[in-house]
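User: Please run a holo structure prediction.
Assistant: Happy to. Please share the sequence and the ligand.
User: Here you go; the ligand is magnesium ion.
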Amino acid sequence: MTPNPILSFDGVTKVFGSGSTETRALDSITFRVMPGELVAVMGPSGCGKSTLLHVAGGLERPTAGQVVTCGRNLGDISLAALSTMRRCDVGYVFQKLNLIPSLTAVENVMLPLELDGMNRRQARTQALQALDEVGLPGVHDRYPDDFSGGQQQRIAIARAIAGTRKVLLADEPTGSLDTLAADSVIELLATLARERGTAVVLVTHEPRFTAWADRVVYLRDGVVVDEAVMHAHTTAADLDDDVAASAQVRS
Ligand SMILES: Nc1ncnc2c1ncn2[C@@H]1O[C@H](COP(=O)(O)OP(=O)(O)O)[C@@H](O)[C@H]1O
Ligand SMILES: [Mg+2]
């Protein structure tokens, strides 16, 4: 049984402006991401990578085509449902680290949960768990300035996955990091995909990161010009099939 994609684009077009200023940022894009999959999106500056993430996360509406994120068709859901989806199902990480310097690591991660109405104790529990998942246990009461750039990006990733976010949209998340810290952040994204089942869409300029991706999508002028499968993605359902198959062999 094939599981459903957590994110799907069908013929998605996004046009900014009109007439002589019209820009076709996305042009009939069809694209799917499965739970637990890490998809890298590459392409030259201005080819539509950030727009793809904005449309996937419901920050921009498509001009045409259908976007389904976490089972919700973004074309016809209410604004209230759209904002719930943005808060509960989708996390964002950017190149800029965007942490609040006057809040501790755990308070930074708790903030969106509390803004969303979660009580303080529960938000703290979830935030500590997320910091643990990004490999930063036991340092939650320090301030962002006490951490290296790579660690700050880990805190931002913890903030993006805290609660039960199913999709992580990362827009050049290593742009401000040195090589070592950058590799370690990408490795973390791959681990979150594999072990937590989070679907990760990673926009990057770095060809070497494709080694961690299940799939790479190449964009040019808003069009998918190439797609490469890096690793055959194994889903939980496939594993069940394997177990069933090997049980048959044994019997
Ligand atoms: N809000 C906007 N208004 C007008 N044009 C935009 C807007 N956002 C993006 N664009 C245009 O859409 C195209 C794709 O942009 P973007 O998705 O940011 O590309 P990338 O992230 O690959 O560099 C570019 O030509 C850009 O100028
Ligand atoms: Mg961009």
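Residues 113 and 121 are 11 Å apart (CA to CA).
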